[in-house]
């Protein structure tokens, strides 16, 4: 593929910024235009955590100041919405009719918070968290003593619950499963993490919302377990829906995400997609799960930058993620499900082992365990369950004594 | 003149690990993380420029320290930021080895 001179990026989150930054690092000197409907290109993870701990400003979350964007040669069109793309022409049409043309178009449109579909879901006290404005709205509702119902106890719901408690909010946390995050972290750590909510004074329930309505003083939520709650606000943290509308309208292949190949190319060779919105389809047609983690968006962008300048992307390792809630830092790498054996190193670290190959690890307040695990996974270094379980054996030693790449089980 | 401050003895810091040297000892604005990587010693301001984690608790490998919280990476030699989510360098300090002593020469710009 010829190196595209002008690149138009739709969306201005982590994937878009990383792409621009990486293109420059790789020597691309052509025009890179980023079109973002929000006022800045900024980092999202603090929205569920730091945004509630102190004063926060969009400038503080921005990936780069105007000066740095200028130095990178990134042309940011902020506060602008894309209403259509023409893949054949490489043309992107903005809401005011402006057309921006590129030799390549990159869709980094991310996702939107999934919303409730039930009576009262459009009430003004129902919040989601995806943008800076969303965080400010939730924060405004999070006054001490306020009663807030958090729907969804996954990563975002759990972080928000902890943040709300830190502000003295009375939180009811509901999820439709007894223990969320089991697939991500395994049963024991999932139970331990979920139990932290009750220990911090959260009313934890297995339920969904049946309806929301105005009450005499505030609002009322009826739950599936028959409970009626008096609340001041609801925060919905039940995942995202990929923003595929532009791609779909342009005739690109879409299936719960914009379908891309390993080079992040969509069904049109001039258009690529990266980040939360992109879903990889293998050459045999197999559809893979979309990765919605911060690092996945970054890696997508680094890989695409290499592809766009005609280089081979670095091999991609096991997926990594983190979560910060209450006073704990949780990290995971790889997968904790599927064939294999669960191995535990004390109470803080869990591994998933297939044969003698590590495929996943999760830790609570022990990031080095996951850093080591990540390298053991990516380098396919064979290990023994007993080694992993032995807290007296530093995991670094397993790396240092790395044996030749292990081909079988 | 900036002092040479004894911060540790050879053998105090295992390879691939670090210790925290408090600012009360170094007279600097920030605590200092003193690293050993493959027999070489390096010193950086301790606080990650991203979310204030302690770099002395980071993962050290191939001349790089990775923040223990969110994997922002910094060059041990000069404190240059190498990857997101960190986007700002951290200050580096000079390290000298004199006999059994590991000495930190604080970066003059980081003196309190």
Largest interface: A-B, 19 and 11 residues
* Strand order of the biggest β-sheet of chain B: 1-10-9-4-3-2
Topology, number of strands of chain B: 10
Q: Give the CA-CA distance, first to last residue of chain A.
A: 39 Å
- Poorly predicted ranges of chain B: none
Shape of chain A: globular
In terms of DSSP E residues, the strand content of chain B is: 35-45%
CATH superfamily of chain B: Rieske [2Fe-2S] iron-sulphur domain
The helix content of chain B, as a percent range, equals under 10%
Unreliably modeled segments of chain A: none
Domain Rieske (chain B): 5-104
GO molecular function (chain B): 2 iron, 2 sulfur cluster binding; metal ion binding; monooxygenase activity; oxidoreductase activity, acting on paired donors, with incorporation or reduction of molecular oxygen
Protein name (chain B): Non-heme iron oxygenase ferredoxin subunit
InterPro entries (chain B): Rieske_2Fe-2S, Rieske_2Fe-2S_sf
Notes on the protein architecture:
The complex is a heterodimer of chains A (409) and B (112). Helix content of chain A is 27%, strand content 28%. Chain A is α/β, with parallel strands linked by helices. Chain A has three domains: 6-112 and 240-309, FAD/NAD(P)-binding domain (3-Layer(bba) Sandwich); 115-236, FAD/NAD(P)-binding domain (3-Layer(bba) Sandwich), CATH 3.50.50.60; 327-400, FAD/NAD-linked reductase, C-terminal dimerisation domain (Enolase-like, domain 1). The longest helix of chain A has 15 residues, at 294-308. The model of chain A has no long low-confidence stretch (mean pLDDT 94). Chain B has a single domain (5-105), classed as Rieske Iron-sulfur Protein (3-layer Sandwich), CATH 2.102.10. Chain B starts with a strand and ends in a 7-residue tail after the last strand.
